[in-house]
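in:
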């Protein structure tokens, strides 16, 4: 129950932040919002995407696990930008890679096909190594 409450909170937060960002964008990026209603269309798309990620009672166990991994990744990718592209790249890729690891673990748990399981394990191994490299770079560069 706590997981669902957390996911719902994250969905509401992202939806609210999207609306605020779109409202701000309408003033500062009018060339990107040339089509009337483009901001509200984008917000509606974001709301639908977040709603689709919410576990539903009829979802298969694997689907529930994938949705939980998706929501965690979306939440964890909300990292402040520093203006330093070297830092920003790594700080945003780390939760992205962790999301891939979490999804691969779902595949290992639920998949039947040996090739899927083999690919999932390779993703875990590769992404964990890359996360460690990015964390080392951040540590060694005073970030």
């Amino acid at each position: 129950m706590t997981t669902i409450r957390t996911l719902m909170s994250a969905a509401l937060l992202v939806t609210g932040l999207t609306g605020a960002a779109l409202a701000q964008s309408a003033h500062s990026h009018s060339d990107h919002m040339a089509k009337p209603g483009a901001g509200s269309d984008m917000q509606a798309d974001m709301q639908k995407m977040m709603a689709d990620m919410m576990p539903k009672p009829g979802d298969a166990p694997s689907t529930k696990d994938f949705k939980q991994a998706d929501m965690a990744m979306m939440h964890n990718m909300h990292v402040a930008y520093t203006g330093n592209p070297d830092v920003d790249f790594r700080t945003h890729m780390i939760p992205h890679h962790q999301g891939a690891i979490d999804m691969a673990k779902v595949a290992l748990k639920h998949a039947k096909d040996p090739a899927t399981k083999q690919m999932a394990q390779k993703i875990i191994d590769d992404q964990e190594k890359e996360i460690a490299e990015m964390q080392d770079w951040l540590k060694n560069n005073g970030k």
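note: The chain has two domains: 1-54, 60-143.
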